[in-house]
Design goal:
The protein is an alpha/beta fold and about 350 residues long. About 30% of the residues lie in helices and about 20% in strands. It contains 11 helices and 14 strands. Helix 1 crosses helix 2 and helix 9 packs parallel to helix 10. Bound molecules: S-adenosyl-L-homocysteine (SAH) and iron/sulfur cluster (SF4).
Length: about 350
């Protein structure tokens, strides 16, 4: 099996090329992979033909392949991307007037088992490599002719998987996405979301190059959170909030808290007051998400008035926004990623 090049950092490419090549060759290949985003080695035209052929005997670019895609009536598009081992992950493009958001996956499936999330039903199949994480962005940028170095593009690591349980590859991908000689995005436009893996939040805090952090709060008491996020038994809410207080924010940065509202479970005014108390002293904002329902999910979506009432209370403490559901009709919205194919979708909609 040829090895993928996508995911290698510059030093790794230097090692791979060895001493037989002039030093600038590594930079040329790095540029071809991440700035030009070639799909085949034969398109890396800066490299001599001989070197391209030699590389092609053991390596491929290794970009993901469009296995299927689904268009929502709201303009978002869900891709099912095939990886080299035949498995697939989801990535979603959400175009807006002034920006484009790409939501990418970090694992195939997820081991965390939140009760309101469809990805949880898959369990964990495997971690994605750094190349497979970066590849989702380069694939979508290529396909939709988006310029990753422009301020329009945002990346959120909020697709399938728990990024902090695959932190090394998530950080490596972040370095490749932000290096000016590679994909060239600003770290301010990349957000990683976690269910609250506390030791890994501390490790993330120490990384020299790191995305912004979002925390899936989703409950206002320990008891309530345990019921919907079993990970709370291992990492209780009080400890999570302490880790948030200790988290070193950069001058321009705020913590984002995500809160999925589940009808008659965590959507009352008392919940909102507790959320306001929990986050009130932090430099933070809160994004409210109405549950995106799905087959096998034992919760319902609250009425829009509930969201507004909740927002008006949290807003007294910190900025609070209601996240617009995107791509619900194509199972592309938060927590709906489960590699649903058109056939399965049709069955669900019956
Ligand atoms: N594993 C990470 C990132 C992926 S989930 C995390 O949990 O943070 C991204 C976001 O989608 C999380 O905030 C999660 O709480 C939310 N989410 C999961 N299932 C959902 C659903 N059915 N409806 C709405 N939001 C959901
Ligand atoms: Fe995993 Fe996030 Fe879904 Fe929880 S919400 S199961 S952590 S993807």
């Amino acid at each position: 099996m040829p090895e993928p090049l996508l995911g290698l950092e510059l030093v790794e490419i230097q090692q791979l090329l060895g001493t037989g090549q002039p030093r600038f060759r590594a930079r040329q290949l790095y540029h071809a992979l991440y700035s030009q985003r070639v799909l085949n080695l034969s398109d890396a035209s800066a490299l001599p033909r001989e070197l391209r052929l030699k590389l092609a005997s053991s390596y491929v670019v290794g970009a993901p392949v469009d296995e299927n895609h689904f268009d929502s009536s709201d303009g978002s598009r869900r891709y099912l991307l095939r990886l080299s081992d035949g498995r697939s992950v989801e990535a979603v493009l959400m175009p807006e007037e002034n920006r484009d958001t790409v939501c990418i996956s970090t694992q195939v499936g997820c081991p965390v088992n939140c009760r309101f999330c469809l990805t949880a039903l898959m369990g964990l199949e495997r971690n994605l490599t750094a190349g497979e994480i970066v590849g989702q962005v380069t694939f979508i940028a290529n396909r939709h002719k988006l310029d990753p170095s422009s301020a329009r593009l945002n990346v959120v690591m909020m697709g399938m998987g728990e990024p902090l349980l695959n932190l090394d590859n998530t950080l490596k991908a972040t370095r490749l996405l932000t290096d000016k000689a590679a994909v060239g995005m600003s770290p301010r436009r990349i957000t990683v979301s976690t269910s609250g893996i506390i030791p890994k939040m501390r490790e993330l805090a120490r990384a020299e190059i790191r995305p912004k952090l979002a925390i899936s709060l989703n409950a206002s008491t320990d008891l309530q959170r345990r019921e919907i996020m079993p990970i709370t038994r291992k990492y209780p809410l009080a400890d999570l909030m302490e880790a948030c207080r200790e988290y070193p924010l950069r001058p321009w940065e705020k913590l984002t808290f995500e809160y999925v509202l589940l009808r008659d479970f965590n959507d009352t005014e008392a919940d909102a007051r507790r959320v306001a108390r929990l986050v009130g002293r932090l430099r933070a904002k809160v994004n409210l998400i109405a549950l995106n329902p799905g087959p096998g999910i034992p919760f319902e979506t609250p009425a829009p008035e509930r969201l507004l009432a909740f927002q008006s209370i949290v807003r007294r403490a910190v900025p609070c926004f209601i996240r617009k559901p995107r791509g619900r009709d194509i199972y592309a919205a938060c927590g709906q990623l489960k590699r649903m194919t058109a056939g399965e979708e049709a069955l669900v909609n019956l």
